Amino acid sequence: MAVDTAEARLEERWRDILSVHARTMCEIDRVLHPHGLGASDFEVLDILASASPEEGDQCRVQNLVGRVHLSQSALSRLIGRLEKDGLVERSVCMEDRRGVWVTLTAKGRDLHAGVLPLQRAVLARMLGG
Questions:
Q1: The pairing of beta strand 58-60 with beta strand 88-92
Q2: Phi, psi of 64 (to 5 degrees)
Q3: 3-state DSSP assignment of residue 129
Q4: Spatial separation of the C-alpha atoms in residues 80 and 92, rounded to whole Å
Q5: Residues 19-43: tens digit of each pLDDT
Q6: Residue 15: is its pLDDT beyond 90?
């Protein structure tokens, strides 16, 4: 019986985590929507801004794959949309033709800086921090 209770508690904790994640992502989507971004869009901009603090710094797409919770193809489509909106630029890695670099543009950097307080406020409100 103790095993069932421990399993039930573990399952309940897992469902609580999923629920908090879903509510938080929806709230981030809601506050960023007027700025033309979704939660995943912001996540990519945020990672690029922290991974490449200087304008012109590049990040390999492969380095984003493990940090953004999207499949590689979904991430590629998202980066394509961000590029179309002028927020990032893509270029081929000259050392490894299969590799792709992503650079945050000035427009992307400005948008990220403008919406960062909104996203962080949602995190503080939803996660109690």
A1: unpaired
A2: -80, -30
A3: coil
A4: 14
A5: 999 999 999 999 999 999 999 999 9
A6: yes
Q: Count of CB atoms within 10 A of residue 35's CB?
A: 13
Cβ–Cβ < 8 Å for 92, 129: no
How far is it, in rounded angstroms, from Cα 104 to Cα 91? Answer: 12
The whole-model pTM stands at 0.84
CA geometry: angle 96, 100, 101, nearest 5 deg: 110
Q: How many CB atoms lie within 10 A of CB 122?
A: 21
Q: Determine the Cα–Cα distance for residues 42 and 45; give it in Å rounded to an integer.
A: 5
Q: Which of 51-60, 77-86, 120-129 has the lowest mean pLDDT?
A: 51-60
- Tokens in use for 51? 């991974």
pLDDT at residue 51 is higher than 90: no
Instruction: Report pLDDT digits (tens) over 100-125.
Output: 889 899 999 999 999 999 999 999 99
Q: Which amino acid is at 66?
A: G
Buried b (16+ CB within 10 A) or exposed e, 78-116: bbeebbeeebbbeeeeeeeeeebbbbbbeebbebbeebe
Bridge partners (DSSP) of residue 91 are 101
